[in-house]
């Protein structure tokens, strides 16, 4: 795919990535998911799928993978590398990253034999430098709440205790002064406060001249001044000096810790990127669990053999989703999908397109594990109205521009998947059908895999008679006017437009006129397609009944076998009992 392609957008790949990103536990892991590199070949896709499988097994085990929740410290690492002094909370975050690193290191060390692919991802963590001493130093200096510990160094402990002793002295003195009758008439209220780091008391404005001190603040009402009493000046000065000494020691500690972080900045960044990669893998495993997804066999030859495939976005938004088998094997290069509107043709296109992207992203697929999916390095989807108003192109012109670009590309056999929704419309039907036939034949000759939805009868006939082509159809119940969303391989589908219009209440005269305007051959083909679909539904129903009958017969046979075995065992016990009684009688 090129950047100009709208393929991911029309397939709603961005919605699936949003759901995947929601499963991550870190901002770095979320960014990793959103950037979502896609595997370039089968080997990479298989390796990434194996990573997801191993993570799924670990998450479901009695000893699950640690939660990969950690802060993004890249900016702080860059600043430390330039000589900046990090804040306490930034150093705390560095310690958190190292803590998750250490936990994952121990965990994968225990599970290395069962998770070789994850071990390769985490090789930098498992074989990297030992940062336990750095983590221990950070933990000993910084509290989990992001404040510095008084015990970070002996000097900080001494200075902090000295400052606290001075503050306790001034508080004791203030408590004594507040209880003294000398200040009873002067105080606005009996409490003390701090202004600019100095202890003050609230004095009535009209009593200010009766007491010596320094005014540090005035209340908003103007009735109170906050006065540093003269008796407190020396002690306040001593506290100021002590606090400054504490601040200098804290700055020295932070500078030292920041320097140590700077020395290991590249290593820590590498470790964080590895943790983010593991977080993205864990998200793939978690989403796979929600989708009830499985790993599938991957190939590079363009084979698509999906069993009971379900659209991932529908699985997450609906309780019941119709599952279908979809086949593009070595004999089928072009699958022509037909049937009424709203029957699920476009959904089928999007299933295959999303699956093609999912396997390249290492995601598991919501289908049966016996399925097989090709890895397509090139994917193109032309779904919906391609009208390009910005370039003043009609829908037909925009579609043709896409087709021209595809035909000019150099595509290896089995490497490209093309998804076309109603190609070459918005023009004369006869010319459009002819051009569509020619395009599909050219794509087949180029070795591309193509799924195309259509109402053109000529394309259905082409698929029925041309090697490398195959028909498929989606079901629609004309009695209830509801789609069945069932996909029938090998059977073309009718549009049933006139019948549906009739069920919706269209005037019978209009319907008769429409039927008259259809060519005789067209009416025959339409009736034939309806009959084929009806027979297909009947065959499917008969097969389901036959399977059920066989299951019931096998169950009945097993039950009869068990009863026979029980009767034989009972008969044998009875014979033993009779034999024992006879022996007892003759032995008397």
Give the SSE map.
Layout: H1 7-10, H2 13-21, H3 27-35, H4 42-59, H5 74-81, H6 88-111, H7 116-121, H8 123-127, H9 132-141, H10 154-179, E1 193-195, E2 198-204, E3 213-218, E4 224-229, H11 233-263, H12 265-291, E5 297-299, E6 304-309, H13 312-317, E7 324-328, E8 334-338, H14 345-360, E9 372-374, E10 378-382, H15 395-408, E11 416-421, H16 429-445, E12 449-453, H17 457-465, E13 469-477, E14 482-489, H18 497-503, H19 508-517, H20 520-586
Parallel strand pairs: 5-9, 8-12, 8-13, 10-11, 11-12
Antiparallel strand pairs: 1-2, 2-4, 3-4, 6-7, 13-14
Helix pairs in contact: 2-3, 3-12, 4-12, 5-11, 5-12, 6-9, 6-12, 9-11, 10-11, 16-17, 18-19
Give an account of the 3D structure:
It is a single chain. This protein is α/β, with parallel strands linked by helices. It contains 20 helices and 14 strands. The strands form four sheets. Strands 10-11-12-8-13-14 form a six-stranded mixed beta sheet, with helices on both faces. The chain has a four-stranded antiparallel beta sheet with strand order 1-2-4-3. The protein has a two-stranded parallel ribbon with strand order 5-9. α3 (27-35) crosses α12, α5 (74-81) packs antiparallel against α12 and α6 packs antiparallel against α9 (132-141).
């Amino acid at each position: 795919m090129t950047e100009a392609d709208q393929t991911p957008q029309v397939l709603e790949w961005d919605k699936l990535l949003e759901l995947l990103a929601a499963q991550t536990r870190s901002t770095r892991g979320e960014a990793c998911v959103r950037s979502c590199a896609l595997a370039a070949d089968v080997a990479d896709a298989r390796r990434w799928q194996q990573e997801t499988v191993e993570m799924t097994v670990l998450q479901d085990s009695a000893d699950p993978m640690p939660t990969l929740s950690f802060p993004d410290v890249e900016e702080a690492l860059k600043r430390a590398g330039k000589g900046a002094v990090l804040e306490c909370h930034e150093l705390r975050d560095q310690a958190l990253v190292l803590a998750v690193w250490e936990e994952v290191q121990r965990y994968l060390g225990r599970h290395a034999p069962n998770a070789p692919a994850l071990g390769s991802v985490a090789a930098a963590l498992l074989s990297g430098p030992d940062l336990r001493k750095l983590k221990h130093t950070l933990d000993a200096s910084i509290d989990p709440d992001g404040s510095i510990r008084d015990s970070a160094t002996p000097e900080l402990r001494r200075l902090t205790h000295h400052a606290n002793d001075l503050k306790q002295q001034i508080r004791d003195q203030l408590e004594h002064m507040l209880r003294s009758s000398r200040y009873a008439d002067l105080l606005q209220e009996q409490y003390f406060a701090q202004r600019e780091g100095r202890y003050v008391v609230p004095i009535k404005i009209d009593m200010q001249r009766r007491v010596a001190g320094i005014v540090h603040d005035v209340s908003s009402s103007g009735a109170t001044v906050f006065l540093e009493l003269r008796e407190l000046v020396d002690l306040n000065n001593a506290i100021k000096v002590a606090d400054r000494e504490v601040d200098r020691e804290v700055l020295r500690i932070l500078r030292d810790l920041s320097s140590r972080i700077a020395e290991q900045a590249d290593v820590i960044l590498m470790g964080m990127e590895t943790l983010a990669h593991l977080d993205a893998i864990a998200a793939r495993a978690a989403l796979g669990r929600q989708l009830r997804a499985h790993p599938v066999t991957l190939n590079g030859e363009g084979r698509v053999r999906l069993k009971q495939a379900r659209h991932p976005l529908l699985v997450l938004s609906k309780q019941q989703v119709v599952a279908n088998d979809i086949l593009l094997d070595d004999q089928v290069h072009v699958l022509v999908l037909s049937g009424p509107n709203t029957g699920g043709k476009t959904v089928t296109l999007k299933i295959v397109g999303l699956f093609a992207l999912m396997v390249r992203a290492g995601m598991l697929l919501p289908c049966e594990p016996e399925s097989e999916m090709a890895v397509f390095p090139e994917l193109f989807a032309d779904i919906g109205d391609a009208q390009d108003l910005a370039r003043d192109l009609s829908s037909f012109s925009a579609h043709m521009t896409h087709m021209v670009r595809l035909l000019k590309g150099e595509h290896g056999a089995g490497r490209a998947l093309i998804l076309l929704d109603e190609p070459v419309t918005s023009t004369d039907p006869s010319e459009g059908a002819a051009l569509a036939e020619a395009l599909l034949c050219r794509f087949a000759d180029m070795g591309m895999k193509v799924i195309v939805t259509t109402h053109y009868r000529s394309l259905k006939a082409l698929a029925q008679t041309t090697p490398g082509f195959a028909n498929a159809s989606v079901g629609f119940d004309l009695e209830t006017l509801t789609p069945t969303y069932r996909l029938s391989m090998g059977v073309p589908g009718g549009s049933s437009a006139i019948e549906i219009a009739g069920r919706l209440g269209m005037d019978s005269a209009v319907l008769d006129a429409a039927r008259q305007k259809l060519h005789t051959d067209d009416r025959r083909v339409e009736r034939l397609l309806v009959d084929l679909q009806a027979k297909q539904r009947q065959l499917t129903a008969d097969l389901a009944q036959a399977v059920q009958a066989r299951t019931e017969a096998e169950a009945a046979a097993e039950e009869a076998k068990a009863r026979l075995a029980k009767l034989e065992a009972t008969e044998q016990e009875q014979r033993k009992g009779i034999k024992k009684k006879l022996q007892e009688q003759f032995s008397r």
